[in-house]
């Protein structure tokens, strides 16, 4: 089975995440894409991240209508920073027959040389990267990267949180079920209007 792993903080999940996952699933003929919700993202240690149960629920809602998309909560059940190499080692033990592809946007792709145990990690997964506005396709000597083209979507969770806090509508920028959940649970505070 060919499985795409799409790791993210997903605070909140947005339509560019879904479009990226679908684009890679289609291009590489993956059987499934697992959205791996980061417990404590290693490079966001000092940032305030929304509670894991909200991010997990929002991702569940976001992927619910896609038959090949799944949510993986393995990193939420492990204390400490969510290093991808730990996740992939565990998933390979649990699913010895799966072939794993790790999906990243161009911003994260450029950071791969700094990831924990990257020399081991690159032997455990194939990296797949997508363009992201503002980030060039990186040249990474020694780290094979499968580049997948897709229409660039200038959307980020940081920007969406800012919009919500400013009282702006994010309808159509996040799946409708996610929008309703974040409003009902005031994940990013009360909507101003
Ligand atoms: N607009 C986008 N185009 C392509 N890839 C994206 C886009 N937004 C996020 N990604 C990728 O999705 C993965 C998960 O990203 P994450 O959950 O951190 O969302 P984000 O929008 O980058 O959030 P933040 O702004 O809080 O950093 C990362 O690999 C990131 O590069
Ligand atoms: O393992 C690492 O060293 C590492 C360093 C930075 C990011 N990651 C992973 O990259 C994925 C995307 O991160 P983020 O914070 O942009 O959502 C997420 O699964 C992180 O755990 C992993």
Summarize the structure.
Helices cover 35% and strands 17% of the residues. Strands 3-2-1-4-5-6 form a six-stranded parallel beta sheet.
Describe the structure.
The protein is an alpha/beta fold and 193 residues long. Helices cover 35% and strands 17% of the residues. It is built from seven helices and six strands; from the N terminus they run βαβαβαβααββαα. It has helices spanning 15-28, 52-63, 84-94, 106-111, 118-124, 157-165, 176-184, and strands at residues 2-8, 32-37, 69-72, 99-105, 126-130, 145-148. Strands 3-2-1-4-5-6 form a six-stranded parallel sheet. Helix 2 (52-63) runs antiparallel to helix 7 (176-184) and helix 3 (84-94) packs parallel to helix 5. The longest helix has 14 residues, at 15-28. It starts with a strand and ends in a 9-residue tail after the last helix. The mean pLDDT is 95. Adenosine-5'-triphosphate binds at residues 8-11, 16-17, 20, 104-105, 107-108, 130, 132, 153, 155-158. Nicotinate mononucleotide (NCN) binds next to strand 1 and helix 3.
């Amino acid at each position: 089975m060919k499985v795409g792993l799409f790791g993210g903080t997903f605070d909140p999940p947005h339509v560019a995440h879904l479009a990226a996952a679908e684009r890679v699933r289609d291009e590489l003929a993956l059987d499934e894409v697992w959205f791996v919700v980061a417990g404590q993202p290693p490079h966001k240690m000092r940032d305030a991240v929304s509670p894991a149960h909200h991010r997990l629920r929002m991702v569940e809602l976001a992927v619910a209508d896609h038959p090949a998309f799944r949510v993986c909560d393995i990193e939420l059940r492990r204390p400490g920073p969510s290093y991808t190499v730990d996740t992939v080692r565990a998933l390979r033990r649990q699913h010895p027959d799966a072939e794993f592809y790790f999906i990243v946007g161009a911003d994260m792709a450029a950071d791969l040389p700094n990831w924990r145990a990257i020399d081991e990690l690159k032997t455990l997964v194939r990296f797949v990267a997508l363009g992201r506005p503002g980030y060039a396709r990186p040249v990474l000597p020694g780290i094979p990267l499968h580049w997948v083209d897709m229409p660039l979507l200038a959307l980020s969770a940081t920007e969406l949180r800012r919009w919500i806090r400013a009282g702006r509508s994010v309808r159509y920028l996040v799946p409708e079920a996610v929008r309703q959940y974040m409003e009902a649970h005031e994940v990013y505070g009360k909507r101003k209007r």
